[in-house]
Amino acid sequence: MAFEDYLNDLCDIYHAQKGDESPGYGFSVACHFAVTRERSSISQTAPANIKESRIKLALPTGTDVRLNDKIVDRKNGCEYIAEIPHDIHGHHLFVYVVAKGT
């Protein structure tokens, strides 16, 4: 099976910009959210609990993803913030993405 066949999800990537402006224009890319590797924690706070999730995201090589980019899952609209991207021998990229919510 080719790596491209593994990419069964779509996400939009928005580059972070300095200042109060919104993130840069988004572009869509095929990806794979590895939810089986999700790490979640729940903090009990008032008035609501906060859930933090960390998910491994696989992307094709050459994808322009950067630290602190906003990643939006096109399937369900969940928003994540990218950690440091890793190039895997020029074959593909992976980046951990973090979501926080109540």
In short:
4% of the residues lie in helices and 54% in strands. The protein is mainly β and 102 residues long.
User: Can you summarize the main beta sheet?
Assistant: 6 strands, antiparallel, barrel
Order of helices and strands: HEEEEEEE
Question: Helical element count?
Answer: 1
Shape: globular
Strand order of the largest sheet: 1-2-3-7-5-4
Q: Structural class, from helix and strand content?
A: mainly beta
- Rg, Å, rounded: 14 Å
Q: Report how far apart the termini are.
A: 38 Å
- Indicate the low-confidence ranges by residue numbers: none
Beta-strand percentage range: over 45%
Number of strands: 7
Q: Kindly state the percentage of residues in helix.
A: under 10%
> What's the mean pLDDT score?
83
Structure description:
The protein has 102 residues and is mainly beta. 4% of the residues lie in helices and 54% in strands. The chain contains one helix and seven strands. It has one helix at residues 3-6, and strands at 9-14, 27-43, 50-60, 70-73, 79-82, 86-88, 92-101. Strands 1-2-3-7-5-4 form a six-stranded antiparallel beta barrel. Strand 2 (27-43) and strand 3 form a beta hairpin. The longest helix has 4 residues, at 3-6. The model has no long low-confidence stretch (mean pLDDT 83).
Keywords:
102 residues; mainly beta; 6-stranded antiparallel β-barrel; 7 strands; 54% strand; globular
Helix-strand layout with pairing:
Blueprint lengths: L2 H4 L2 E6 L12 E17 L6 E11 L9 E4 L5 E4 L3 E3 L3 E10 L1
Antiparallel strand pairs: 1-2, 1-4, 2-3, 3-7, 4-5, 5-7, 6-7
